[in-house]
Automatic annotation (TrEMBL):
<dbReference type="InterPro" id="IPR052408">
    <property type="entry name" value="Exonuclease_MUT-7-like"/>
</dbReference>
<feature type="domain" description="3'-5' exonuclease">
    <location>
        <begin position="24"/>
        <end position="198"/>
    </location>
</feature>
<dbReference type="GO" id="GO:0008408">
    <property type="term" value="F:3'-5' exonuclease activity"/>
</dbReference>
<dbReference type="InterPro" id="IPR002562">
    <property type="entry name" value="3'-5'_exonuclease_dom"/>
</dbReference>
<dbReference type="InterPro" id="IPR036397">
    <property type="entry name" value="RNaseH_sf"/>
</dbReference>
<dbReference type="GO" id="GO:0003676">
    <property type="term" value="F:nucleic acid binding"/>
</dbReference>
<keyword id="KW-0378">Hydrolase</keyword>
<dbReference type="InterPro" id="IPR012337">
    <property type="entry name" value="RNaseH-like_sf"/>
</dbReference>
<dbReference type="Pfam" id="PF01612">
    <property type="entry name" value="DNA_pol_A_exo1"/>
</dbReference>
<keyword id="KW-0540">Nuclease</keyword>
<keyword id="KW-0269">Exonuclease</keyword>
<dbReference type="GO" id="GO:0006139">
    <property type="term" value="P:nucleobase-containing compound metabolic process"/>
</dbReference>
<protein>
    <submittedName>
        <fullName>3'-5' exonuclease domain-containing protein 2</fullName>
    </submittedName>
</protein>
Length: 199
């Protein structure tokens, strides 16, 4: 076993802070989706995460604002509140040849299904891996992006932008880096676990 099974908040805070430094491609037009998903089909593994406008009222959830899809050397950030949902989006998630890797994705998938239904698009994801489940099988006593990143990658990520408004007309550079980081670490954790023979 090459990693700890648990980690304290203090231990996480002592780790170096890192963020995604690679290329970010921001997509806001429906017409661009086909080319994006055509390119993503070339990769066997894609890290993903979603963001939604935060709600500070109990029982209120907003639609998914964006989805982040990370492959080596590039992360796409698709602003779903601008592009809407199309068949190519649903086809990507239904493609069993591509492994979609995320962390704590149960609600993400539920919200995406709801958004697809609004656009009258069937959403039947295949080959989706939640790294929380993988960690549990490895007897790691934690879940979530921050803790799993610390345990498996040895650095910490900032969650400062988590409750920012993802429906702003323009997203800030810190928002884009935060969003891209969350998808990128999923890809990196998968790569690390695969190299150690755990996947």
């Amino acid at each position: 076993m090459m990693f700890a099974k648990q980690i304290t908040k203090e231990e996480i805070n002592n780790l170096p802070l890192r963020k995604y430094e690679g290329k970010i491609v921001l997509i806001t037009k429906t017409d661009d989706l086909e080319a994006v998903f055509e390119e993503l089909e070339q990769y066997p593994v894609v890290g993903f995460d979603t963001e939604a406008r935060p709600s500070f009222r109990k029982g209120v959830r907003y639609d998914t604002s964006l989805i982040q899809l990370s492959v080596p050397n590039k992360t796409y950030i698709i602003r779903l509140n601008y592009t809407g949902i199309s068949l190519v989006f649903a086809d990507f998630f239904a493609n069993s040849a591509i492994k979609k890797v995320g962390i704590s994705i149960k609600d993400d998938l539920k919200d995406l299904r709801k958004l697809c239904a609004k656009h009258q698009v069937a959403f039947d994801p295949e080959n989706v891996l939640d790294l929380n489940d993988t960690a549990k099988k490895l007897d790691v006593h934690h879940a979530g992006v921050r803790k799993l990143t610390a345990i498996f990658l040895g650095f910490r990520v900032s969650k400062a932008q988590q409750t920012s408004n993802w429906e702003n007309l323009q997203l800030t550079e810190p928002q884009l880096r935060y969003a891209a980081t969350d998808a990128w670490v999923c890809l990196e954790i998968h790569r690390r676990l695969e190299s150690l023979g755990y996947l």
